[in-house]
Design goal:
alpha+beta, 4 strands
Length: about 375
Amino acid sequence: MYVAVKGGEKAIDNAHAWLGEIRRGDTDIAALSVAQIRSQLSLAVDRVMAEGSLFDADLAALAIKQSRGDLIEAIFLIRAYRTTLPRFGASAPIKTENMACMRRISATFKDVPGGQVLGPTFDYTHRLLDFKLAADGVIDEARKAATPDEAKPHITEFLNQEGLIQHEPTSDTTPPDLTREPLELPASRALRLQALARGDEGFVLGMGYSTQRGYGRNHAFVGELRIGDVAVELDIPELGFSVEIADIEVSECETVNQFSGSKTEPPQFTRGYGLVFGQSERKAISMALLDRALRWKELGEDSSGSPAQDEEFVLYHCDNIQATGFVEHIKLPHYVDFQAELELVRTLRREATEAKVAKEAAL
């Protein structure tokens, strides 16, 4: 049991003031604005929005500034703010097949309707420091290729036409909301995907990587990776139809996985799925790898006992806010606890010494 104690108020006030000074930095250098962070550190903003479960780039940029660039602290700030917001309703499922794709690639098919769109990516860059950026030099503007606006069907549907990939049933049942209800196990796939979308990118990446190294029987191909804007629609009962209330940027990944069949399923390809706010393709791919690894039971497979296939291990440890709270709480005062431990060790040592002396005396 942890009990709050009073004391040190002046020291805490001074710590806050010092933090403000450190955050501002050298006053001879112009302060970094929220607009600059949103525009020029967009990938960091996207991560904070995704793991904070709130799509608001301005607030995410503000949280990054307030946290001095500590993204987990920024995510904590966003989640705390999110709890203060009223809920007016639930939007309809987004239609990613209608996405205005900024990036759309497939590692399984070369020629696909709508074409492959490389988009803004580090994939083909040389990992060399660009000192033009340090000198505030002018960077060459991109020569953007025109991309058609027609709907781009999901590439895995081509396999589905031949019945070669597992059919994903649809459901009208509203999935549980992890932001409003505690996680319960066993979790549905919808709940697992929510937890992974909010999960720490590094943890999800590491666990996804472990499946590729044999800890999860997961040999995956990226069937499709797409990044772009999708419309968010809200049903208005008074109107009798839905209206678009926003466009949001998301990253979506579907993996195609080998599957030799089981007692309940025939040989076919199976899917892994990941969807996350913003341009976060590494997170989306990692989600898809973990999603597939966690589906072993519903596919009738035998578990290899790998951590990535352990639902409780993955879902209870992927949340960086919970992990941070529990890890960092040990730096707070535990004087009473430690004194009890200290007295226990002293007592055990004293009893051991007395027993040793008594044994020697008996000899």
